[in-house]
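Trying the structure run again after the queue cleared.
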Amino acid sequence: MAGIGFELRKVFERRDFSSLLTGTLAGIMIVAGPWVLSIVSLSVIAVAASPFVQGTRLVSGIIVYSYASSLIFFGGFHYLYTRYLADLIYLGKKQTASAALVLFLAGAAAVSALMAAAASFFISPEVDNLHLLRLSIIVLYVSINSTWIIMLFASLLSWYTRILFVYAAGMAVSVALTNPAAAAEGLAGVIAAIAAGNLLITLGLLALCLSAYPPKRFRLAVKEGRRALAKYGKLMATGFLYYLAVWADKIIYWHVYGNRVDGTFFRLYDPYDLTVFFANLAVIPGLVVFVADTEPALYIRLKKFIHSLIKGTYNRIIHERYELFAVIRLSFTRLLSVDLLCSLVFMALALDRNLFPSFDPLVTALSLAGVFFQLTFFCLLTLLFYVEDHSFAMIASGVYALASTVFTLLLVRYAGPAWTGAGFASGGALACLVLLRRAAVLSRYLERFLLARYSE
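Done. Tokens:
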């Protein structure tokens, strides 16, 4: 992702309003495009569909479970694919990377379709057109998983205006179709409208990627994919554990305090689901800062430091080491300051009873703390990725998942729903401390660690 960070930097450095707006919107879509789509989808339901349908919890359940399961079951493969893609790009094999996109996308789409089809047979709510509902669930789930993957490749492109246009077109289609589809087919029509918009975005982004880099050398892509799978298994495990950590407490609250959505196996706990949904918006600016500022700066300084280890004098090594840690401190201070400021702003908004009458102040504060530690953990985890410390990254993600699960179960048992979100926040804080301890150790022995790692 450092590659797109350099491109976004160029946009921001123009320092005019148009460039600032384009860079910000493009950054948001690149780091959180599918998540923004879910926000738009739920907003569309609330505004456009409510006059025509009742029981919109079904639609919310489909969207929430689709996004949660897509990250839990496919997040590890996203980590693997990102590194696999980065290796091909580093070697200058962009068209082979495009072939890898096609192959990986085909596999993910097939598995997604089978999973959604199987799940849809356990969904039999009272709707006007059950077959349309099930088909729409399959299309929506395939589109969500495909968009995550395509956006990893789309970071190669500098066509920000085109990417934004594709997203805008897809959202517009969903908005335009929701009202008439809800009137004609009820809840099934609402899901069909959302699925149609998501599918348009998926196909549009894929067309951009393939037109920029026509896929070639599929056999080489398969060969490199097998090598990546064998080499980066711990990286893939890290992704699975990380997303399990993010969703573990939500799953527990769904099953302990949540209410079943009629005709489905979905359970939703609205007091927490809505708050978490809101709180996650606070990390988007921080993610944009990370992609456009923190990661490119880290990449530049780490590359210079490694080169100094190979060819530089002792004084040069000491200088580059100092510059590397200075950039890390400055970049992370700026990043976490932005995230903290956004959290405080969102907390102030949540306290406005006119805007959010159903939000509990304590649960909101705990949810914002949880996503703050989530972003901090993610950024520290990226540091380990850059120095190839995949083993400890996997361990730290496991600690995050275990701590979040155990703390949440203890709070459910002894504190009840009043402290909802505290388990996730506590687990995130503990996991961050584990990573900070590892970072402190690496800072003392970084030269030896890197030389040993890159000599393997």
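The first strand starts at residue 259 and ends at 260. Worth checking whether this holds up in the mutant runs.
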